[in-house]
Amino acid sequence: MAPSVPRTRAATALRMKLIALDNQGRTIRRLRAQLATERRGLATMKKELEDTQVALEVSHKVIAGLTEIGLSMSKKIEKMKVQKQLAKANHVECHQKFQARIHEAEDSMQAQHLIIEALVDEKDSLLQTIQGLQEANNAPAPFDGDWEEEPEEEPEEEEIEDIPLGEGEIDDE
What we know:
Helices cover 77% and strands 0% of the residues. By secondary structure, it is mainly alpha-helical. The chain is rod-shaped.
């Protein structure tokens, strides 16, 4: 029995080594599968990272564009405010000038009215003086209030020809 014991031990040792090799092979295959899975995950993450970087760059460009638009609009708004203030100042100035012209016209009209009243008073005074002189000289009064007015000539109206009914109608036939 002695010679078979070493063989059995050797065979057992060999089987144990084969089992260990099989286990190591399975472990290697499992680790390779995990490595492949991890590599695919890393590739996916790398692609997602690149996509995120591209999206981030686009976002930065959009933000820069919007900021530029916002600044441009702010400048335009400021210009419009200045224009509005200038327009308001011009409106106030024009309004003041217009009011001044109105007051000048009113003052002128009042002055003309006073002049007209003075002229009417002077005319009445002159008429009384003339009448007084005429009465003193026993002369007839030239202004007795009977004025002869010339009749106004009325312009001749053009006669319009009467178009008899039925003439000039459109015939549908």
